Amino acid sequence: MEKIALHIENYTGIAMETQHKILVSIAIIVILYIIRYFLLRIVWRHTEDVKSRYFWKRLISYIIPITSIILISTVWIHAFRYMGAFFGLLSAGVAIALKDLLANIAGWLFIMFRKPFVIGDRIQIGPHKGDVIDLRLYQFSLLEIGNWVDADQSTGRIIHIPNGKVFTESQANYTQGFHYIWNELEIRLTFESNWEKAKSILTSIIENHTQAISYAAEKDLKEASKLYLIHYQYLTPIIYVSVMEFGIRLSVRYLCDPHKRRGTEAAIWEDILRQFESIPDVQWAYPTKRVVGISGTNPPPHN
Predict the structure, then answer these.
(1) 242 phi, psi to nearest 5 deg
(2) Which CATH number is 249's domain given?
């Protein structure tokens, strides 16, 4: 009977101690998230800058959970000594059941330390394109571009992508390293057009629109070459001439800011249309068919 009473007493003591630890853990979580609430209130009150607000929100969101884990671990550290085997089996089961969740956490660590992209970068991951607007422990968010909208313009949708996708999907970064992309315009003229005059006009228009960018891109390329094997022989615009089925094609290739591709393209097209309109020997080409007949011949009789 004494042994039974002793076991009951020990069990009661363990139960009360466990209950106490649970209450202390809950209190820690509540207190820390109250602190988080007031810290954010202070930030909102003292700054209206969007980037500063985002930075402090993310910083506090990382510090509070880490602090709570550390404090709660100190409360339970003695219990862990006697439950090592149990937690070993439990952790193995959790790892299998929550493999996607753990993959997302690993993806977050990869993004934070390897930095394939950062907030503000324009990227494509798998079929999704957009500007990175948020990085969290389990997912990152893109402000979508493209899809049903032309020329990399925003659709207004926010896409949330699990961090684990960085290990399984290819990623393209529009702005990392070298901060410019190449864009091309196709101008199609008839065979009878004065293509050399057209090329000279196009060269003048493109140089006028890209002169500042070419200089900035040259400096940017030197910095990017410290990290990546990027080499371009020319950064200035270039026009390629080729012949197609129904005319002459002038392909204009130039550097532009990836966030301003549609705007620069529209401005260039406006100048091209205005200048070509006043030149009679430069004509636009489009798919046509020519029927050539032989005079003095009669069509074959119909049966």
Answers:
(1) -145, 165
(2) 3.30.70.100
Residue 282 lies in a domain: no
Hey, what amino acid is at 127?
P
- Rounded to 5°, the CA angle 263-132-162 comes to 140
Q: Other CB atoms closer than 10 Å to residue 130's CB: what's the count?
A: 24
User: Is residue 227 one of the residues assigned to a domain?
Assistant: yes
Between 93 and 189, the more confident residue is: 189
Asked whether 126 and 170 are in contact (CB, 8 A), the reply is: yes
- Residues 81, 117, single domain; the answer is no
Q: What is the pLDDT of residues 213-266, one digit of tens each?
A: 877 887 787 777 767 777 777 788 999 999 988 899 999 999 988 888 888 999
Domain assignment of residue 254, given as a range: 181-277
| Cα 166–chain centre separation | 11
Residue written as token pair 């864009």: 183
pTM for this prediction: 0.64
